[in-house]
Amino acid sequence: EITNFDIVEGTFILENSYSFFPKSTVHIIAINSYYAPRVRILLLKKNDYYFIAPDNGILSLLFDDTDNDEIRYLEYGINAGDLYHVIAKIVGEIDTEKPLEEIGSKAENINKKISIKPVISGNTIRATVIFIDKFGNAILNVTKDNFLQLGNGRNFELQYSPKNYINIISNKYSDVPFGDELCLFNSAGYLEIAVNMQSAGEILGLEKGSIVQITFE
Predict the structure, then answer these.
(1) Over the stretch 81-120, which tens digit does the pLDDT of each residue have?
(2) What Å distances lie between residue 27 and 7, 55, 119, 157, CA to CA?
(3) Whether residues 98 and 130 fall in one domain
(4) 41 & 71 share domain
(5) Three-class secondary structure assignment of the chain
């Protein structure tokens, strides 16, 4: 379940799940759309999937390599109450394989947001907790590629509080005793801080936006 109105969290979940659906699936993104008085709707076809979303910057977070030429305006200034009727009509047109250029006009001046990237300086990565899952695991905005490229096999310390750190990458949660902290790369390839059979968010005081520093020797 996505936290209300949180497009960053919605982006993370969709980014790591949309490709598990069959090709040509239409993904409808409605975060922050129903409660706005007027809504501008966008359509994007990317990687053989369709994405219908409000013009609130979420598409730029989801695909930072997307060009405006790939995005279509579907409606301008839709009343919130009519939103799902319009979306249903659009899905029907996609289902009939109607060309996108006939469904909407070329998008211009769309809202864009900048994703939270890890800050790399010298031998240090300054990371941010971008998501806390239902088990209380804290996911960082650091991928396995980020970590391995800078670390190059060197020892490291992941400092999650002024006096506490982790210096081993585990393969599974049970690598440490019950209640101990660990870090590992999750199935999506992101670095994650966890506590075996406990909530890292509660036990370690981590929350979305918390800063974590990784230093390589």
Answers:
(1) 677 888 898 999 999 999 988 888 888 888 888 888 999 9
(2) 15, 15, 31, 39
(3) no
(4) yes
(5) CCCCCCHHHHHHHHHCCHHHCCCCCEEECCCCCCCCCEEEEEEEEECCEEEEEECCCHHHHHCCCCCHHHEEEEEEEEEHHHHHHHHHHHHHHHHCCCCHHHHCEECCCCCCCCCCCCEEECCEEEEEEEEECCCCCEEEEEEHHHHHHHHCCCCEEEEEECCEEECCECCCHHHCCCCCEEEEECCCCEEEEEECCECHHHHCCCCCCCEEEEEEC
Residue with tokens 């239902």: 134
Residue 170 contacts residue 183 (beta carbons within 8 Å): yes
Residues 171 and 147 in one domain: yes
Same domain, 174 and 85: no
Structure tokens that stand for 163 in this block: 């006096």
Q: The domain containing residue 195 runs over which residues? A: 119-216
Taking only the tens place, the pLDDT of each residue in 34-47 is 666 677 889 999 99
Q: Is the Cβ–Cβ distance between 61 and 11 less than 8 Å? A: yes
CA distance between the termini of the chain: 39
